[in-house]
Amino acid sequence: MKFALVNPKWSFEGSTYFGCPAPHFPLELLSAREMLRRESNTVLLVDAFMENLTPQQVTERLDAFNEDFLVIPTAPSYLFWRCPQPELRVPTHWIAALGRSSKVVVIGPHGSVTPQMALQKTRADVVLRGEADQTLPQLASVPWEMIAGCCWRDDSGTVRMAQGLGVTEMQSLSALDYSDYPVECHRHLHHIFPGNGADHLKLGAEVEFARGCPYSCTFCNKTLFRNTYRERKLSVVLAEVDQLISRGVDYIYFIDEIFGVGKQVRKLLEEIAKRPVSIGFQTRIDLWNEESLQLLGRAHCVSFECGIESITEEGREELNKNCRLSTDRIGDLLICARKFIPWVQANLIKTAKDDPGMVTAWQQRLKANGVWVSEPVPMFPFPGSPQYVETFGEQPDDIAWERAHSFYLQLFADKGFSDIQEQNPQSLAELECVS
After folding, report:
1. How far is CA 52 from CA 22, 57, 90, 100, 175, in A?
2. Which residues fall within 8 angstroms of residue 176, CB to CB, at 6 or more apart?
3. Is there a contact between 154 and 114 (Cβ–Cβ < 8 Å)?
4. Nearest Cα to Cα of residue 428 among 166, 110, 29, 130
5. Do the domain assignments include residue 394?
6. Between the CA of residue 403 and those of 334, 382, 393, what are the distances in Å?
7. Cα distances (Å, whole numbers) of residue 112 to 8, 31, 35, 148, 351
8. Which helix (H) or strand (E) holds 231?
9. CA distance 396 to 383
10. In the predicted model, is pLDDT for residue 167 greater than 60?
11. Among residues of the chain, what percentage have pLDDT more than 90?
12. Are residues 283 and 199 in the same domain?
């Protein structure tokens, strides 16, 4: 079978999206390509976002390929599946603009939570819930009712759904093949800012070391995809790193939900320390101590982002952080990290447990020692997250994204949005042009 994997050209005008708007490697498509090829399928991968292509330009490539399945994600890169844009404007537009007669398959966080809604809005034929790396090849080889997480519209137009979610065995993932991918176009350095000590870096890339997270924080949107913690083989990850270095990459951002948990992390860092490449990632400060923070410095870590969420033990308990460190110890470790890492960031979430004056004092102490601390902001109650159920008292239904989006807009109606967001976002109906 022939599979065309297309990453659309993303745009976020009018959206509440607070992820990075720059192009990133579509790791979910690159990974799926390896799995598809392993099962003797022919695969065309087109990254319209990285290559700045129009639907017409992509159509020309598809016409020459003549695919059986067209696969499009509903959010830009695995890195942002846990904080996706609520709207399905871009994938819906691209599916319509490409106008293919092949079976259209959508993957991503929206269909993982609300598959029938995703089918309806995008007019796709199939939704694969969860991780699609290993389930995509099954579309060509087994009855769809046997594919975990498959939701499809049959020939009569009836929506049918298989049980479960797609889950990938990480040990089976081989090194991604970048030989025909435009690596050199990826000039963006994720989570690198002017003046943060990494201005010498030129070419960025994203790599996946592990998938999922062993913690269950209420605000985290990973339950219905990338949930259980799994590591890739160290040799495979290093082969991928070396391949990217050979293409000129000098900065790698690990997209893991939580970097620093696994048994192989120390060995990975020791190996990276031998290579001409810098790294960045998201983590928890309670996974590190003074010795391991020094190792991060030797491994050329230049961007260290930590979810602190609350400055009180009560606040962290309310968010189910399962953090055993005191607030003072957290601050001390962040300050220690800044001795070895040019950019150390502490993120806070708005919680009723935290006194604003205490927050300000804690911020001032950290900032005085070179640590950047965010202002506390309410989190979007992503459908599929524990926070969604806590907020609305029910599991997500087909209007879950509209419900969550409307609630989030009301939170900021009189005080403005985060400085990394559109300040006048539209409603979901306006964004998706739904009458």
Report:
1. 11, 10, 14, 20, 26
2. 27, 30, 31, 34, 240
3. no
4. 110
5. no
6. 37, 10, 12
7. 19, 18, 20, 11, 28
8. strand 230-231
9. 6
10. yes
11. 88
12. yes
Both structure tokens of 34: 């390896």
Residue for token pair 């399928």: 41
CA distance 32 to 6: 12
| Segment 313-332, tens digit of pLDDT | 999 999 999 999 999 999 99
Structural domain for 187, as ranges: 172-373
| Residue recorded with tokens 């790396």 | 133
How many Cα atoms are found within 13 Å in the side-chain-facing hemisphere of 326?
Answer: 3
Q: How distant, in Å, are the alpha carbons of 38, 106, 120, 141 from that of 110?
A: 27, 9, 12, 25
Residue that finishes a domain, picked among 127, 161, 195: 161
CA distance 423 to 426: 10
- Is residue 407 a part of any domain in this protein? no
Do 302 and 252 reside in the same domain of the chain? yes
* 400 domain-assigned: no
- What gap in Å lies between CA 229 and CA 263, rounded to an integer? 12
Looking up residue 272, the CATH number of its domain turns out to be 3.80.30.20
My answer on whether 206 and 345 are in the same domain is yes
Domain count, the chain: 2
Tokens of 262: 């696994």
- Over residues 94-117, the mean pLDDT reads 97
Residues 136 and 195 in one domain: no
Q: Both 205 and 82 in a single domain?
A: no
244 with 329, same domain: the answer is yes
Kindly state whether residue 282 falls inside one of the protein's structural domains.
Answer: yes
Do 185 and 71 belong to one domain?
Answer: no
- Positive or negative, the CA dihedral 100, 104, 110, 116 is positive
From residue 388, how far is each of 64, 200, 407, 424 by CA, in Å? Answer: 44, 42, 11, 23
Q: Give residue-wise pLDDT tens across range 32-44.
A: 999 999 999 999 9
Residue found by looking up tokens 């639907």 in the block: 55
Please tell me whether residues 222 and 105 are part of one structural domain: no
